[in-house]
Design goal:
Blueprint: E1 9-11, E2 15-17, E3 20-22, H1 25-31, H2 36-51, E4 55-59, H3 60-67, H4 72-82, E5 86-88, H5 92-107, H6 113-117
Parallel strand pairs: 3-4, 4-5
Antiparallel strand pairs: 1-2
Length: about 120
């Protein structure tokens, strides 16, 4: 595939693969938070990432986590929101490391990202 046909490559003298930041489900939830200060801070952070030339992506597990227990209009709106992110397949190694990290959080008594920041 050439650079012209692949929107996710950057072309200068040599063809380079685009760099992605995989956005966690919690980041999406915080970005849509009714707590305006939290929401705006997360959105600014995502904009800063994009300003560095990186692209935002989500994993298939994030799609599931974000859409679970939604139906009707809410599910349609959420699915529409997810269209702005490229979807990436995450390897079993990444899932294994994520499970290990979650176990460490439980061991430390951290239930939420906010708890980790305050410890």
């Amino acid at each position: 595939m050439t650079a012209e046909k692949n929107p996710h490559t950057i072309q200068d003298n040599t063809q380079k693969q685009a760099q992605y930041v995989i956005v966690d489900t919690n980041v999406l939830i915080y970005a849509g938070s009714k707590q305006r200060e939290k929401s705006e801070a997360v959105i600014r952070c995502l904009e800063d990432v994009v300003a560095t030339g990186k692209l935002l992506a989500i994993s298939e597990i994030t799609v599931y986590e974000y859409l679970r227990r939604l139906w009707g209009r809410k599910a349609e709106e959420a699915a529409e929101h997810l269209k702005q992110y490229e979807r990436k397949v995450v390897s079993s190694e990444v899932f294994s490391l994520a499970a290990h990290l979650d176990g460490l959080y439980v061991e430390e008594g951290i239930d939420r990202v906010d708890d980790a920041a305050n410890s």
